[in-house]
Structures are given as structure tokens and as C-alpha cells.
Design a protein that fits this description.
Layout lengths: L19 E3 L2 E3 L12 H5 L2 E3 L6 H11 L5 E3 L8 H9 L6 E3 L8 E2 L1 H10 L5 E10 L5 H16 L3 E10 L2 H16 L3 E5 L7 H16 L1 E2 L3 E3 L7 H31 L17 E2 L3 E3 L7 H10 L8 E3 L7 H13 L6 E3 L6 H12 L10 E3 L7 H11 L9 E3 L6 H7 L40 E3 L12 H11 L6 E3 L7 H13 L5 E3 L6 H12 L7 E3 L7 H13 L5 E3 L7 H11 L3 E2 L13 H12 L4 H7 L1
Parallel strand pairs: 3-4, 4-5, 5-7, 6-7, 7-8, 8-9, 9-11, 10-12, 11-13, 13-14, 14-15, 15-16, 16-17, 17-18, 18-19, 19-20, 20-21, 21-22, 22-23
Antiparallel strand pairs: 1-2
InterPro entries: Leu-rich_rpt, LRR_dom_sf, RanGap
GO cellular component, one term: cytosol
GO molecular function: GTPase activator activity; small GTPase binding
Length: 641
């Protein structure tokens, strides 16, 4: 039987049939004649590829034109497709052999009753690939409890099923052992990829230990590709059990490969490999995605997980956000990232509170990587990281090993002006000839992107989130000026978030000078600052001729009707800008209404605040308005250079 990721086999080769569906629209082409097909529909509609494009209308149309001739239907990733429409199509397709409909979004999980209905409606089906959700009732109702476990056994035991993601709702320690036993067997047989047992506080360490034991006993290592146990009340013992299972699986894979090489080199017969799991199966370690966020994992558990990561663990995502990871855990995870450099693309340690010491430990370990790393997304927000930690991270991430890093999240730390200035080195241009070329393309499954929409972005950061870091504290401009100076020649960054950094009109001037030079930034957020009308004027002047910026967020900056006039002029002069967010400023109802009439959705000006009764710094602001009216200011000087 075919694997879920491979194309269907056929007794005789045949080219892809036309017409073919694309983006929910029918693209007419030349229909290929198939011997034995007594009807044009039988020749043209055997294999339908609607991945990411199926909608209710397209499925309804397909029912009418295919005349029951469909043998294979793939609507994977079509978030607008509904289960009912797919089931209706299956009922009218008596020759349907393969149905693939995974990743349909939040409402795309099939219940066991839905699965039964599909097989009942289409007895010819030999492969059904989908996401399944099962609710495990409490043991108070023993009959319903056993029935729900029976549903898990049924859906994971049916050889016709390919479950991309099994979502377990509720559950307890005892039920978790049953679920993970079935999951281990199904994953080992290639019928299950992912288990999500998140948001169940009754699971705890017992469920994590059960998962580890069942993966080793019935899966021959760690056959699951994805494991999510967010908010499951897991503590250090549970994390250490999972880490032990992962580490032993990787060691067994390495030992088996070593034995295979020894046989090949020796050129003579050697005894069969003896599995540490007590059977003749080859060991496996397939873990790609581990999500243990929002638990109670401290340093020992985090350190064990970091130590388990190695070259034989093909992990691409590790999420430990909202735990209590400390210095020891940061160091071990950093070393693990360096060892898994070829595969790990996303690391999330946000909301851990490890401070500068943890950031320095993480950076020191990352700096030990001696080969190009695949890391693209690094999330370190809400960790009380200061200037010292920022300097250490910048030094590690600017090494040649991390030139593929694209998204860096340092929001809600305590970087201050010095920390922001230290990060400016991350925005210095990188010669594409010096960047590594060894990595493979990032799949949509891993959530990465190496190029912008125009396909011309060079190596370097794609987005930088520095929200709420006191970058402009006490009017200090050194940090923002250093960052903006680096951005003047940067061609990789597309999104910059400076929200809530106590920025003043002078800081807005620094940003505006950068915008006069940078022609690749597309999204800029300077909301929740203090740039006032003067800052709005500086930005409007700089952006009037900017060819790249699509979105500008200037929420809650105490901008009044006077400042709004500069934004009005900007939108009239620059049609490239698609949206300006001006919510929670001090615009009058009349101005808000006029914005809506003139620019529609290009301006979001809802929920305005009441203007202050006494205007602050009347003399300074009056002088500033005079200068604005005369066309002066730093942007004008910059343009005159």
C-alpha cells in the first residue's frame, strides 16, 4: 500500500489528466484518453489534485462534472473545504480509492463517527488520510470511557487509515497509556504522524512517562514525528523520561548504522543487529516537532531535553516556552541546537525568565557550532534579557553558523538603548557568496521561508521584534540611531517592531532618516510610543517617496487632527502603502469619518481617545508647527544631501 506522502501507484503509467483544478478554478486543457474509459469523465477525472485550493463551491462543481469517476482526491491543506462537502463527494464516487484531506484547519478534525461515515459511504476506499479528534471521557462514566478508548484503538488500528494528527481531548494518565500504546504501533507502521495531547492538566508526568515507555516498547524507539503536550502539567520527571526515550532511540539508530557500516567494510557476514527493544526491527528516531510549552519544566528537565538532542534526532521545532528554564537548561539546549544544526529550524524559549545569565549561557553554547545551522526562528521574548545578554546573542548569531536566521523575537525584555545598539550588527549586510548553500529548502510544514515574495531577498534577518524594550528610555537616542544606521544599507529585513519603546519625536526623526535610504522594509510598527504630531510629520515626509513600505502602525501616539493631516497627505502621495493603523490616538470624529470616506480600509482609525484638555509643551509644539509649515526638519535636510 502506498505511503501517505507518495503518489498513488497504478498498474500502468499514465500522465496527469487534464483538466486540472488550481486555486479553486478549472483550468481547461487537453483531456487524456484512457483505455477502457467509456465516458469522458472517466478519462479526465480519475486523479484530482486540489491541495490548498478546495472550496465548498469547487467540490460541489466536481460532484456534478466527475460523474462518479474520481479514484483519487487530494484536498490537503484546503482550509475552506468542509467535511460535509467532502463526505457528499465520497458518497457519489463509487470508484474512489484514495482520499487525502489532512490539515483542513481548526474545524478540519474528523471524529470517529465521521470516519465511519466515510467508509460506509465509500466501501471502495483503500486509503483515507485525515486529522482525527477523540474526546476521552472521565472514568466516572466507565462505559463511555471504554467506548472512547475503543474509538482510539479502532481508528489507529485500521490499515486503511493514515492519521496525520491525532488530537486527544481531556484524558487522564491511564487513558494516556492506552493512547500512546496504540499511537506507537500505528506510527511504527507508518499510519500516524502526530499526537496532540495538549490542554489537559490531568495528564502530568505519568502521561509523559507512559508516552516514553510505549514509544520504546511498541514503537522500537521514537516513531512519532510530532508530539505536543502543552499545558499538560508536566514537570521535570516527565520531561526527563521523554528526553531519555529520545536519547536512547537516537543512540540505537547510531549503533545500528555503525554496525551496518562495519558489515559493509568487513566484507563478510556478521550477525544480525540486536535491537535494544527486544525484537528484530531496526530502531527509529523520527521526532521532528516537540512542543512542551506552558508546563512546569525547570532546569533539570530542560537540561535533559537539551542533552538528548543530537545528529540522529531529526528535530525541526522545539517549543519550551512558558516554563522555568534557567541557566543550565539554556546551556544544554544551546549545545543541542549546535549538534542538531542540520535540522533544527525553530526554537521557542519565550516566557522563561532566565535573564542575562541564561542568554549568555545560550549564546556561549550556540557559538560552539562549527558548521552552518538551519536555525531560522529564535523566540526569546519575555525573559528579562538586558544589554549584556543582547551583546552575547549578537556575537553568537553573527557568526557564520547562523547566517540563515530569519526571525528574531526579543520583545518585552529589558534591552535598553545599549542592548538595541548591540543588535545593530545583526542587520549589517551579508555577502550572499559567503552564506552557506548546503541547506535544503524549507518546507511549509516547518514554517520557514528563505526568500521574500519577490524572491530576491539576500541572507540576513527577515523580521526583528524589539517591542517593549525601553529603547528610547529617558530620551536616549544611541540605540535607535545605531539600529537605523545599520538599516539604511540593509536589504533583508522586511518587518521591524518598535512598539512600546518610549520613542519621542526625535526618535521618529531617526526612523524617518532610515526610511529615506531603505527601500526594502515592508512593515513598520512604532505604535504605543510618544512621537506625537511631530513624529507623524517626520514619518510622513520620509515615506512620501518610499517605494516599499506597505504597512505603518502608529497606534496610541497622541496624534491629533493636525498630525492626521500629514498622514492624509502621505496616503494621497504614496499609493504603495496599503494600511496605516491610527487607532487609539486623539482624532476627532469628523477626521475619522473623512479618512474612511477618502481612503477606506487603508486607514484604521477606530477607537480614538479623548484629546487632553490642556496641551503639553505649548511653546515647543507651536515652534515645531512653524518649522513644519516652513518645510524644515531632519527629513528635509536628509533629502537635501
Amino acid at each position: 500500500m502506498n505511503s501517505p506522502s507518495s503518489p498513488p501507484s497504478s498498474s500502468r503509467p499514465a500522465p496527469r489528466r487534464e483538466p486540472r483544478w488550481s486555486s479553486g478554478r478549472l483550468s481547461m486543457g487537453t483531456a487524456t484518453h484512457v483505455e477502457g474509459g467509456g465516458h469522458l469523465a472517466d478519462a479526465a477525472w480519475r486523479e484530482i489534485d486540489l491541495r490548498g485550493a478546495a472550496t465548498a463551491n469547487s467540490l460541489c462543481t466536481l460532484r456534478g462534472v466527475a460523474c462518479g469517476a474520481v479514484r483519487l482526491l487530494d484536498v490537503t491543506g484546503s482550509r475552506l473545504a468542509k467535511r460535509g462537502d467532502i463526505l457528499d463527494l465520497a458518497r457519489e464516487s463509487p470508484q474512489l480509492r484514495e482520499l487525502r484531506c489532512g490539515s483542513l484547519g481548526d474545524n478540519g478534525k474528523w471524529s470517529v463517527r465521521d470516519v465511519d461515515a466515510v467508509f460506509e459511504a465509500c466501501p471502495s476506499l483503500t486509503l483515507f488520510e485525515c486529522d482525527v479528534g477523540v474526546k476521552i471521557d472521565s472514568r466516572g462514566d466507565e462505559e463511555r470511557y471504554e467506548e472512547s478508548l475503543g474509538e482510539v484503538r479502532y481508528v489507529l488500528g485500521d490499515r486503511r487509515m493514515r492519521v496525520r494528527r491525532l488530537k486527544i481531548h481531556s484524558g487522564c494518565v491511564d487513558s494516556a497509556h492506552v493512547v500512546f500504546e496504540c499511537a506507537a504501533r500505528a506510527a511504527r507502521a507508518g499510519r500516524l504522524r502526530s499526537v496532540d495531547a495538549s490542554w489537559s492538566l490531568k495528564l502530568g508526568c505519568g502521561a509523559a512517562r507512559g508516552c516514553a515507555a510505549m514509544m520504546e516498547k511498541h514503537g522500537g524507539g521514537f516513531p512519532l514525528r510530532r508530539l505536543a503536550m502543552r499545558k499538560a502539567n508536566i514537570k521535570d520527571p516527565g520531561a526527563m523520561s521523554l528526553a531519555g526515550a529520545i536519547r536512547r532511540a537516537a543512540e540505537a539508530v547510531a549503533a545500528e548504522e555503525k554496525e551496518s557500516r562495519r558489515k559493509e567494510w568487513s566484507g563478510r557476514y556478521a550477525a544480525e543487529y540486536e535491537s535494544p527493544h527486544g525484537d528484530v526491527r531496526d530502531p527509529v528516531c523520527e521526532l521532528r516537532w516537540l512542543d512542551l510549552g506552558s508546563n512546569h519544566i525547570n532546569d533539570p528537565g530542560a537540561a535533559a531535553l537539551g542533552d538528548a538532542l543530537g545528529p540522529k534526532v531529526p528535530i525541526t521545532r522545539l517549543n519550551l516556552r512558558d516554563n522555568q528554564v534557567g541557566v543550565l537548561g539554556c546551556r544544554s539546549i544551546g549545545y543541542g541546537v549546535a549538534r542538531c544544526g542540520a535540522t533544527l529550524r525553530r526554537l521557542d524559549l519565550a516566557h522563561s525568565g532566565f535573564g542575562c545569565q541564561g542568554a549568555v549561557a545560550l549564546a556561549t553554547a550556540l557559538a560552539t557550532a562549527h558548521s552552518p545551522c538551519a536555525l531560522r526562528v529564535l523566540q526569546l521574548g519575555f525573559n528579562s534579557i538586558g544589554a549584556v545578554g543582547a551583546e552575547a546573542l549578537a556575537a553568537a548569531l553573527t557568526s557564520g553558523s547562523f547566517r540563515r536566521l530569519e526571525h528574531l523575537d526579543l520583545a518585552c525584555n529589558v534591552l535598553g538603548p545599549d542592548g538595541v545598539a548591540a543588535l545593530a550588527t545583526l542587520l549589517e549586510p551579508i555577502d550572499s557568496d559567503d552564506s552557506d548553500e548546503s541547506g535544503d529548502a524549507t518546507s511549509a510544514d516547518d514554517g520557514g521561508s528563505t526568500l521574500s515574495d519577490d524572491g530576491k531577498r539576500g541572507a540576513g534577518l527577515y523580521s526583528l521584534d524589539l517591542a517593549v524594550n525601553n529603547a528610547g528610555g529617558d530620551g536616549e537616542r544611541g540605540g535607535i540611531r545605531a539600529l537605523m544606521k545599520a538599516l539604511e544599507t540593509n536589504t533583508s529585513l522586511r518587518m521591524l517592531n518598535l512598539r512600546g519603546n518610549d520613542l519621542t519625536p526625535e526618535h521618529a526623526g531617526d526612523v524617518a532618516e532610515m526610511l529615506c535610504e531603505n527601500v526594502t522594509l515592508t512593515q513598520l510598527n512604532v505604535g504605543y510610543n510618544k512621537i506625537y504630531n511631530e513624529g507623524a510629520w517626520e514619518l510622513a515626509e520620509a515615506l512620501s517617496e518610499n517605494p516599499s513600505l506597505l504597512g505603518l502602525d502608529i497606534q496610541r501616539n497622541e496624534i491629533s487632527d493636525d498630525g492626521a493631516e500629514w498622514i492624509r497627505g502621505l496616503l494621497a502621495a504614496n499609493s504603495t502603502i496599503e494600511e496605516v493603523d491610527m487607532r487609539s490616538n486623539q482624532l476627532s470624529p469628523e477626521v475619522v469619518e473623512s479618512f474612511g470616506k477618502s481612503f477606506g480600509e487603508r486607514v484604521n482609525a477606530r477607537w480614538q481617545q479623548e484629546p487632553p484638555k490642556v496641551e503639553k509643551n505649548d511653546e515647543n509644539m507651536a515652534a515645531r508647527r512653524t518649522m513644519v509649515g516652513e518645510g524644515g526638519g531632519r527629513v528635509a535636510a536628509k533629502k537635501a544631501e
